[in-house]
Please model this.
Amino acid sequence: MTNRNHRKFEEVCRILEKNGNDPARLIPVLQQVQEVYRYLPEEIMSFVATSLNISPAKVFGVATFFSHFTLKPKGKYIIRVCDGTACHVKTSTGILDALYKKLSLSEKINTTPDMLFTIETVSCLGACGLAPAVVINERVYGQMTPEKTSEVLDGIIKTEEKQKEAVNA
Amino acid sequence: MPETLSLKEIGLGYSRLKNGIKARVVVCAGTGCVANGSLEVFDALKKSLEQNGLDVVLELKKEENGTLLSKSGCQGFCQMGPLVTIFPQGVLYTKVKPADAEEIVTATIKANKLVERLVYSNPSTGERTAILSEIPFYKKQHRYVLKSCGVIDPEDINEYIADNGYSSAENAAFNMSPEVICRDISASGLRGRGGAGFLTGRKWDMARIQKSAKKYIVCNGDEGDPGAFMDRSVMEGNPHSVIEGMIIAGLATGADEGIVYVRTEYPLAVKRMRKAVADAFALNILGSNIFASDKSFNISVMEGAGAFVCGEETALLASVQGERGMPAPKPPFPAQSGLWEKPTVINNVETLATVPLILRHGTAEYRKMGTEKTPGTKTFALTGHVANTGLIEVPFGTTLRHLLNEVAGGVTGEDGSVSLEAFKAVQIGGPSGACLTRDHLDLPLDFDSLKSIGAMVGSGGLVVMNTCTCMVAISRFFMQFTQNESCGKCVPCREGTKQMLNLLDDILEGRADDTTLPLLEELAVAVQRGSLCGLGKSAPNPVLSTLKYFRQEYTAHIKEHRCPSGSCKAFIQYSIDPALCKGCMLCAKKCPSGAITGELKKPHKINTAACTKCGICVASCKFKAIKGAA
Model:
């Protein structure tokens, strides 16, 4: 355990160094930390604060202000349903409801217990020409319907199961 | 100082390399087309070209003969993507799939024949148009800032230079004093495209006269308005034009450092801007002694972290400094005391991309477009219920009717038909903006005439809504957005938007009474007056404007518990028309709550008590037998 923690902080040190230990670069530092850990663990935020010589409250304040940062671990696949104006008028909420239902999730509990999926909404992805849009990790899916989204998810679930089987075998 | 070629030599060199190129295939690689699979199309085209024995040139680095295959930024016609344009013919193919590549190569490139099924066909008239510039969507526009977007390769700085790129910045560095640059930009009448329409030249002048050894130029690429993607497209499609604009702004104000702030939701724009900046440094267009002059200018790219309020300039600066993005009171204006308390000019992406063109073609030429008080062109993101969604550019003063009829190709109704009949309203300026209705179809779109009716150009999002859209629900949607994005500094904005949202929910869910609307209006004015920044000041706009033009919809919800558009869940009742129902059982199978019962080949019934009003049955019925009424 200690060993793993040690390695954890090494990574953070590297990020801090790359940003010149500059408190003005707090946002890029947190972005890079999140890229590595996929969320912002509390102990790492405290470590960042101490290293940059600012209060943990400030780091926590910035981390909670911006919607890009998350303090909770997220699933392997982050499904972001666009609810920008263009997607909204083309009924993106139907997709969201269907996804919540399919994965038994809600606005409050938005990550599946197996840590495979997290459902989020975003205000606008700028892919309005393809409204309604859904993004799963980096991939954008345009002109979606609840059924099409469900099919995409089934595809992912199947690939995951196959991988699991391969590992078990 | 590194030895570098002059712009002219680079441009000439590029043109020479291009001589050997007989045909060019441009694949749109904007966010929209990539989502539709344009990168796979690109690979398939490459393979087909090679298999057909044609030399494929991917990068013009040395003199070569063959077909140049390149990716471009957003061409604007996102709905029709993936788009492939073929030169010298200028043919545009729409909705291209990897399987089409072979035929494009053998027919069009080798034999100069059209692939008919990929040719654009007008959704309302069925008319087919093969040549890009002849397609009404493009023909009825005036592409000025977007002219090179979607044509040139955004990742090849040489092509931008060959297109006269960076010549304005070079000329400004050698032949223009800061006063002259500010004077020219003021004379052009260029107004900031970020929303408020402040004169760019005046903003620069204000920063220019500040006595400070350090000044900053910030490019605001934090395009947060839902339904707007103009800045994304410019950054993805022609990043060097933004850099050139920033260099000129730096020369005009005496700033030697620039920051491009791009929102994190635009990963491709971040990537292209970063590459463009690196390429410009390599050619000494950025750095110390740019163009071998005595001037210096450096640029760094910063990624935002997801906060709408950071589009507000003081909030943006706070986040660049590593703080919570909260707005600060003005004055002092950023031009006087901005980033690290130094004079800072913050310009929008589109504004900066326009600057080099003004200097290149002259202010008189620029003033020929648009209106007297608002010269030039404006890009709009045209989305929602229209036949052609996408990115467009027209001169200021163009009417909504022209946009909807000619460029957008008409408004789509619920049944998929295309006409102006289905038009109800258009939201302009996003969550800070207002709605325009049928009454405004002939209003010239520019800063002043929109302001006179309580609307704004905003960043340029145009979301078109058809008659099936409930305006109360739309205003709730915007209120939810601003409530979420309120930074929490001012009580009227933080608490006021929350209470307004509650009142709107009361209306939409049937709990409202006679006191609701007066309270909502009173609160709207209080939030408007009591907030510090533009977010709070403009948050009530959608509510106020829908109240102004669609008050009867509000009263119908409140007094009659009825949604005139038939879209509000709380009031909707689904029923099956026994005359139309064929008893196919599809709806019963699809219904997630088991509310539909019936036997095969006999009309089905909906148990309204069990119905969750999800609408899946309506979408699944092939006979249009299920209707929702409110």
Summary: The CA atoms of residues 46 and 56 of chain A lie 5 Å apart. Helices of chain A lie at 2-18, 26-37, 42-52, 56-65, 85-89, 92-103, 146-168.
